Amino acid sequence: MLLARLVYPNHLCDLALKFGWPVEQVSHISTATQTIIHDQWEHLLCWDAARLTPDRLVKYAHAIEQKGAPMGTIWGFIDGTIWGIACPTYHQCTCYNSWKRKQYLKYYGIVTPDRLISHLFGPVDGRRNDAFLWQESNLPNILERNAHAPDGTPLQVYGDPAYSINCFILSPYQGARLTNDQKQWNRSMSRVRIVAEWAFKEIVNTFGFLDFVKNQKHLLQPVGVQFRVAVLLHNAHVCLHKPQVTQYFNIENVNIVEGLMEDELLEPPLLSEYFHN
């Protein structure tokens, strides 16, 4: 019932006819189900230390390097996204985005080469920029504690120019007078960073209800929980249906690493492995 609610902007009366339940019970069941899922599994969207181990981060970095990244310490891609909501009756300026000139909620996530959204922060009101989300999320401290190779080498995520540069995050070269090497570096990273945009686009394609702005009424329903649950369900879909993004990072000259083929290393985990306590 929850999936039917999220997959397409159906009216509740249409779902009531489909499932044979009263309208108010359809609403209550779908809302209660997404709340249970979020309460049980939201820890997977913060930093899943059981899965994002140093060995796993190194494998991600190796795959990204082999695809064309100019360095071998980048293990994921950080990207922000804005999600449109209906204009609220109260506190409209809180969510008003002056660039888009509409009301939005903002999120950002880290996408890894197996197409999982391995970290998600939000929602935050739409007037905030990516740098604010970066600091508010406490992600700098999380990366400092966890984003290391087994030998202690710092590993980085790669983002757009809104983010700063340090031992754990990188962004493109900026400025009007870039050298040819700097331009080539930006182009190489742009080709591999595209997977972050693919992941968020896939959420829209799978759960069309989230893209129906008129029904995203954040003062009347938990739209933030709804989006985060959709990310969990997206990751579950990736685990069940081996995505093409994994094939994007396959290496033409397959190497043997610890007895496994490289394409096997990039496969998403089993569903039972991803949803662990």
From TrEMBL:
Keyword annotations from UniProtKB, A to Z: Metal-binding
Segments forming domain DDE Tnp4: 78-235
One Pfam family named in its UniProt record: DDE_Tnp_4
Essential cofactor(s): a divalent metal cation
An example Gene Ontology molecular-function term: metal ion binding
Domain of life: Eukaryota
Name of the featured protein: DDE Tnp4 domain-containing protein
Organism this protein belongs to: Choiromyces venosus 120613-1
Source lineage: Eukaryota, Fungi, Dikarya, Ascomycota, Pezizomycotina
